């Protein structure tokens, strides 16, 4: 049924870069056979899964949304997509994304834009825009994304879905094409908090193949999602981050967020205002750290090891071939970040830029620690706006970067954060049109991911 749905609507949503139809049907059949043979299978067995094209999948094309990887067939499988399949999920395809995860609108995909199923001429968000569009358009019930600075939470918010960025180090980066290694975090996107909890639990846990993977037991997230729905959140203390309600927040988004806060109060939670004074420097710190790490990670695309190779005529030097390949293979945003990051890391500037950004990162983590000594979770709007029209903001990189204000603090601190739908708001540009989804971000202390589920399930 999902493959039929893809055939019907994917030329409009642009959610998939590659559909693995036959393989999926074979895998689904194998699961049916196991079930028929009396094997007791888990709750996700046979459920279709859309996988962001940044996860390497054995024998299935993987591009990270970039031309430089066109034609590459990975010889191995990422830990997270492997664990999902071990739980019985059936991969039905690889989803569209901003090139290497760099972007917030999916318009930086080297292949095609993706449309928001609520209004196709609008962005589904990014960088996991294809994953969000696929689930929102009922092309898949669940999807995997990655969140470096908001790329799971923001697309979930703009398409009316639930998206979760786990605690950094609890979902493996092995086989996830690297953007910014100290920030990259795989996680689930789905339609309900419980769906997302089930996938989150299936993909989590220590992985010896990832040197930053934490050797800690998986938080009881499925239980928390069920408990939140059953018992609510009576007595919980919830902090509203003052600094994340500032300039640029659309009045309609603010109104729906306030309605969400009212719902939390009605459920018996105590809602208080909290100040995190360094959050306003999150954008500046992130846009030094992420491009710096990216400039180093992307050095591996050298025309020799993977995919594209341009100008290799037997005459040109290796350096020329490398340079022609990188010029043809990378899009403008990727080049911008490589240049930014290379500059920020260069001798003489390292302390002034990268070093300074790392200090700000520590201050943001301390703001979180101080806040969590007073409250159980923090909340904010997930994104300052509803989904904007394609082509509107992506011409101005700085304007797009500023939209990440709300999601970046939890990324820099490595702490868990979820987006859950709280309502629909008018688009300020076209007030008479279809109202568009608004998400509430629920943030929790490191390794306390279950609190996001408890509050998210109560709110839902
Ligand atoms: N929008 C942010 C960026 O462009 C975050 C992207 C992400 O989380 N992968 O870097």
TrEMBL record:
PROSITE patterns: AMIDASES (PS00571). Residues 1-452 form the Amidase domain. Its EC number is 6.3.5.7. The active site is at 52 (charge relay system), 127 (charge relay system), 151 (acyl-ester intermediate). It catalyses: L-glutamyl-tRNA(Gln) + L-glutamine + ATP + H2O = L-glutaminyl-tRNA(Gln) + L-glutamate + ADP + phosphate + H(+). One of its GO terms (biological process) is translation. The keyword Cell wall biogenesis/degradation does not apply. One of its GO terms (cellular component) is glutamyl-tRNA(Gln) amidotransferase complex. Allows the formation of correctly charged Gln-tRNA(Gln) through the transamidation of misacylated Glu-tRNA(Gln) in organisms which lack glutaminyl-tRNA synthetase. The reaction takes place in the presence of glutamine and ATP through an activated gamma-phospho-Glu-tRNA(Gln). This is Glutamyl-tRNA(Gln) amidotransferase subunit A.
